[in-house]
Amino acid sequence: MLGKQGSVKIPEYVLKEVYSQKDDLAAWAADHSGVFHCGVGECIRSVPEVLAAYGEPLLNEADIETLWADPYLIAHALAVGGTVVTNEIPSNATAPKNKKIPVVCKTLNVPCLTLPAFMWELRQTMR
Q: Is 95 helix (H, G, I), strand (E, B) or coil?
């Protein structure tokens, strides 16, 4: 329902990461990819700002690849005024390639929720 309304989207790079697992979630995502999918074009202008938020020293291509879909997830939320939903726990890591999604989101003032918090907020809005 929320996917069809456009309220919940899954960035292309996140879907690629999910598909690589070849599990039940990957099968479900493949069956519903048209409902939730949002392409890279929606966020590409925000990617440099997100990468800069990972901090110094500047990330090289190898470091960026270790981040997987994380920068694109955050860039999508930044570009469309969305909220990131993740189960990552903030950490005190200072090396750019070790920073967690909630820390980068906080740096960029991008709302970030855990999945249970998202479900709770969703429940509150559906009442």
A: coil
Q: How far apart are CA 63 and CA 46, in angstroms?
A: 18
What's the angle, vertex CA 108, arms to CA 59 and CA 125, rounded to 5?
Answer: 135
65: domain range? 2-125
Burial environment of residue 88 by CB neighbours within 10 A (0 to 12, 13 to 18, 19 or more): middle
* Helices H / strands E in the chain, number of each: 8, 4
How do residues 86-117 score in pLDDT, each as one tens digit?
Answer: 999 998 888 777 889 999 999 999 999 998 99
- Can you tell me the distance from the alpha carbon of 100 to that of 102, in angstroms, rounded to the nearest whole number? 6
Q: What is the domain count for the chain?
A: 1
Cα 21-3-103 angle, rounded to 5 deg: 65
pLDDT in tens, 29-88: 888 777 766 677 778 889 889 989 988 666 677 767 777 888 889 999 999 899 999 999
